[in-house]
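Sequence only, no structure available. Ideas?
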Amino acid sequence: MKKFNKTLGVAFVAGLLALGSAPVAHSAEDAGGVVKFIGLSYDSAKAALDAAKAGKKDETLASLKQVRQYSKEITGDAAGMKLQKVNQAIKQAALEAEAGDLAAAAKTLEPAVASLDEIKKAPK
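Reply:
I predicted one. Tokens follow.
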């Protein structure tokens, strides 16, 4: 029983330390963090669109990866269904870009970027 309590205590302390050392995961939980990550998602999606139109596959894929990371930080009901649709379009655009079809990726990204712009401008 002592060994179990000791193990449980160690696990509890480790859990507290893990929560305290994860500032990025908590950064979007307030309104300011949500607005920040929506803006970063928009900027990266716009950069991906511009790179796709310019025929730059690596830059397109890198920007799309950033969008997906940033959108994971948007918590709560800040964007709801629109953000889900944007994330689906980002995933589709990444598949198209990976296959080398940057024109299709750009076409997929245009409405996604427009939706992110609407989300960004909406009151929080």
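Residues 46 and 113 are 6 Å apart (CA to CA).
Hope that gets you unstuck.
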